[in-house]
Amino acid sequence: MTTMGIRTVLHPVSDLAAAKTVYAALLGIDPQTDSPYYVGFEAEGQHIGLVPEGGPQSMTNPVSYWHVTDIEAKLAALTAAGATVEQPAREVGGGRLVATVADIDGNILGLIQDR
């Protein structure tokens, strides 16, 4: 049940075009994914995503996603430790599974498993 660290951070944005310009300036690169519903940058092994209006998950703050080898086992371990599942594991395309939990203080922790 390995955790491979935080490799993905998603940011809810109110103005996707303006945010894309700011993040491109910050990272010094153009986005690799650029659509009306998601903009993603790959920078030095990190994925930075911009989600208009918080997307279907209604994010209100950035969410860091921990990459794991077994998302269901990690969800079980986290809930046994006191976390609460916010969004159960679901496929988002390309074999990628994502889920979120809230820690005991309500902080949202994201999980990603690539198959």
Structural class call reads alpha+beta
Helix content: 10-25%
Query: Strand percentage, roughly?
Result: over 45%
* End-to-end separation: 14 Å
The helix count comes to: 2
The Rg value, from CA coordinates, equals 14 Å
Strand order of the largest sheet: 2-3-4-1-5-8-7-6
Which word captures the global form?
globular
Largest sheet: 8 strands, mixed
Low-pLDDT parts are none
Give the ordered list of helices and strands: EHEEEEHEEE
Number of strands: 8
Calculate the mean pLDDT score and round it. 94
Outline of the structure:
With 115 residues, the protein is of the alpha+beta class.
Please describe what this structure looks like.
With 115 residues, the protein is of the alpha+beta class. The protein contains 2 helices and 8 strands, in the order βαββββαβββ. It has helices spanning 16-27, 71-80, and strands spanning 3-13, 33-35, 38-43, 46-52, 63-68, 84-93, 96-102, 108-114. Strand 3 and strand 4 form a beta hairpin. The model has no long low-confidence stretch (mean pLDDT 94).
Name some characteristics of this structure.
single chain, 115 residues, alpha+beta, 8-stranded mixed sheet, 2 helices, 8 strands
